Amino acid sequence: MAEPASPAKLIDGKVYAERLRGQVAEEVTRLRREHGLQPGLAVVLVGEDPASQIYVRSKGEHSLAVGMHSVIHRLPEDTSQHELLRLVAELNVDPLIHGILVQVPLPAHIDENAVAGAINPDKDVDGLHVVNAGRLASGQPALTPCTPAGCMFLLRETLGDLTGLRAVVVGRGRLVGRPLAQLLLQADCTVTMAHSRTRDLPAVCREGDILVAAVGRPRMIKGDWIKPGAVVIDVGINRVPFDDPVKAAAGRPKVVGDIDFKSASKVAGWITPVPGGVGLMTVAVLLQNTVTAARRQAGLEAA
After folding, report:
1. 23 belongs to the catalytic site
2. How far apart are CA 13 and CA 280, in angstroms?
3. Side-chain half-sphere of 299: how many Cα atoms within 13 Å?
4. Which residues contact 53 (CB under 8 A, 6 or more apart)?
5. What band does 259 get if pLDDT is binned at 50, 70 and 90?
6. Are 20 and 281 in contact (CB under 8 A)?
7. CB-based burial of residue 137 (10 Å sphere; 0-12 exposed, 13-18 middle, 19+ buried)?
8. 185 FRET partner, CA 20 to 30 A, in 193, 213, 244, 295?
9. Which candidate in 122, 126, 234, 258 is catalytic?
């Protein structure tokens, strides 16, 4: 580990996301030129959730920008689970589509697990199918959930070799915590998974050369929970009222992470901001997963 920085150095998610998208664009160009293969991504949106609409539009724009075939299916709020599963089945056998993502959250009458389980694991670019979770846990090549993979990209770009480092992951959810712990193990870290019921959680956090927060609680982890010089990755996206009464009156919430950035940045060596950190990596990794899926389906890479 490097010596502590004061204040902590920012890990700029925008810079790294642009770099990864550039790498993806180069690979898409090469696949089209050498193999006549254009990776295709289908995104399905059910309902009118405003945040989901923004995410889906961003995914479509970035897919086109790197040269991919991009399809967005927008379905009404009252779409039945049967109708959604029928669309997924059609996409599973569409030769032009190599990656499928069904945007969550879904309306309450649709079982998200049933939908995730219906996607062809080889086209599951969200990495949520139990087959991909099993492949990841057993160390086999898998399509990995985008946010954990984005965290690993940032860690490797920041530290290089992660071998032997102590990593503490706070949060045990299937979207981030569990898959990230598996990825860190594969990188030869010594991994501790912590959560809301961990005894003396601050002391456990202070053991980490790498500390990842994915708990969904605004500013939960304070500066005195952090080992001096540690790399702090904040996955949290929490909306809280502005302290400024004028901004609060405007009705727009402030976005903060699970880390108390002000105190943490005085102790950590490196830290991701919120916004501007991990969140920007998610779409870039989605594009990378789509390219990986296309290569495997074309027999250009081991599955």
Report:
1. no
2. 6
3. 1
4. 45
5. very high
6. yes
7. middle
8. 295
9. 126
Share of the chain above pLDDT 90, in %: 83
Integer Rg of the chain from CA: 20
Q: Residue 196 above 50 pLDDT?
A: yes
Please state the pTM of the whole predicted model: 0.90
Amino acid present at 247: K
CA dist 121 and 281 (Å) reads 22
Structure tokens at 214: 């994915």
Bridge partners of 259, per DSSP, are 221
Helix (H, G, I), strand (E, B) or coil at 262: helix
Active site residue 126: yes
Average pLDDT, the chain: 93
Provide the b/e sequence for 199-219 (b: ≥16 CB within 10 Å): eebeebbbebbbbbbbbeebb
Does the structure show a pLDDT above 70 at 265?
A: yes
**Cα distance between residue 17 and residue 277, in whole Å:** 9
Both tokens of 230, joined, read 């540690």
Percentage of the chain surpassing pLDDT 70? Answer: 95
The amino acid at residue 254 is K
Catalytic pick among 103, 182, 288, 297? 103
Amino acid letter for position 41: L
> For residue 108, what pLDDT is reported?
94
